[in-house]
Give the backbone structure.
Amino acid sequence: MITLNVNGESNQLDVSPEMPLLWAIRDKLNLTGTKFGCGHAMCGACVVHLDGEAARSCSIMVGEAAGKRITTIEGISGPVAEAVTHAWQSLDVVQCGYCQSGQIMSAIVLLNENKNPTDEDINLGMEGNICRCGTYVRIRRAIHQAAKTLA
Amino acid sequence: MLRARPKLLIVLLIVLGTGGAVWGQTQSAGAGDSLAAWGKIITVLQHPRCLNCHQLNSPLQKDSRRMHIPHVVRGVDSHGVGPMRCGNCHNDSNNLTSRTPGAPEWSLAPVSMLWQGLSSGDLCRMLKDPARNGKRSPEALVEHMNSPLILWGWNPGPGLEPVPIPHAEFINLMNVWVAGGSACPK
């Protein structure tokens, strides 16, 4: 049995330590806000937080996530998360929405570590989050707006 | 079973004989032996498994040495920036599902150890220079080749070619190189 602390709750799961964390989150815990995109850590749809760091849950294995504080899109809270989600809503960032939970999870980590990111900081930090609808301009604007809210 | 034993004995004699020859070579290695050993060592150090992360700002990827996808950059601690840090995707071991390679301390090599574009001689001089090799003595350098991140080069997982020389042989070559004075080509 492996214990996963997800969104503040402890869960005992009978799974292989080599199972991708995303499988456990979606299929065992039924938290489906985190999306499967490429399955190879290349698109960012599956980003969650591990002890506050961005983590691609299709690639991080359950055994490595055990003992860490796992946060999914369903469990985000605090001033940065609120600023980001409010900016996302007020600027109507989302198009189809499939990648957006991963985008938001990465944006929160970016703003946690950099309160006033430049366009280049945003480009480098969000580089690995792919949006097939091309909402990048709105994502960048929303991150700047969230930063202003937090200033 | 009985028929297999002579074969086993022969294999053992070959293995022990080879080891003895290398040990003897280590003890009496001269500059020529050292230089010859380096000629093989360099084939490991310039292999994509090593060279792909001995880069300035962004690692390369795969046997083809393409740019890393997604694009990542060094950052202040050589482990990336913000939501794009090495450990965000790379585990302490290879992930056979996502096929993401992994080992402890997965990161770019320090800036003092940029090997891309160096000739064999220049890389050799960099490797033995304590100012550019992490302040390592020759003996510590050999020991360093047993660290988990470096050992990954021999076990890179599916779809990636391992470095070209078996690890035990590589360590023997390193010992010969050091014993002969860490000789470098011009």
In short: The helical segments of chain A are 21-28, 62-65, 79-90, 100-113, 119-126, 136-150.
